[in-house]
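User: I'm writing a tutorial on reading structure tokens. Could you give me a worked example: one chain, its sequence, then its tokens, then a sentence or two explaining what the tokens reveal?
Assistant: Sure. Here is the example chain.
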Amino acid sequence: MDEATRCWLRLQAVPGLGPESVRRLIEAFGDPCAILAAPRGLLAPVVGERLADALKSSADPESLAATLAWLAEPGNHFLPITHPDYPDRLRNIADPPPWIYVKGDPALLASPMLAIVGSRHATAQGCRDARAFAQSLAAAGLTIVSGLALGIDAAAHEGALAGGRSLAVVGTGLDRVYPARNRDLAHRLAAAGALVSELPLGTPPRPGQFPRRNRIISGLALGVLVVEATLESGSLITARLASEQGREVFALPGSIHSPLAKGCHRLIREGAKLVESVEDILEELRWQWQPPVKLPDDNKAPEPADALLELMGADPIAIDRLVSLSGLTVETLSAKLLALELEGRVASLPGGLYQRLH
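And here are its predicted structure tokens:
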């Protein structure tokens, strides 16, 4: 570990030192070691008396020791903003975190990403849509980033892990999992993707941390897809941040009678791209489509596309009816239908219906 990284670690252990204070210090002194070496009289005009005192006191030895022990474990990383593996897209936003903690594969940070976010209290159909879109987009080569929350976030992570890769940005320290119900999902993301946080180890969940987390989700991504959101949803914060950061914003429309569609409809009125298929997103991103990877269907023999089209018949058919006829899970069937949509062989209709085109 080089001296600059050691200085960054000492800075992150200073109680109360947030991103804005670090930014001012770096502007004033140039690098973390110079900050730590600066006299109190020069620090106070930059960050105030209290933080100047904190910077000149010894770093919390327990916090620093815990961080070093965590970093000694395989797959754990600390990336200050000056590190070559710190992602350029995030570095270039208006208020980038001065450092990030990563559990998993840091190479994912440089991959092209799409964020999928939405309501924690999503409908079953909303979760199916998020999972199916994530699976096909991940199979096309995009890393799916979300926030590990219940509902749409969790469904997007699950779909992405089935089709490719996923990354979660969390609002706690990486030695904690919130919500606890997503503990198994967090472990799978760490093993096959990555978990990211700007918060020190040991940081518990607090309400104000999650809106701040959202700027990292949008900052890492090429665009943000919102699937089900009320007018008060935190997902609209992510979409607003994405727009301010120059990212694409996509929204899935829904019923005019559903409160969970109102946030998406507002985004569409404000200029977000209305999305009906994966192809809508890929075209907007000018992303070259790659066919989804072939996945096992719950230990059943693969259902050929022509056989699925045969089951659909000539008239519109509901996905629940197709589940009954095919014996496939909703997740697998949704992914197959999306692939057929992209091939121009199936059309999705209002009301959750699908129709064969050829």
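What the tokens reveal: The longest helix spans residues 124-139. Confidence is low (pLDDT under 50) at residues 288-303.
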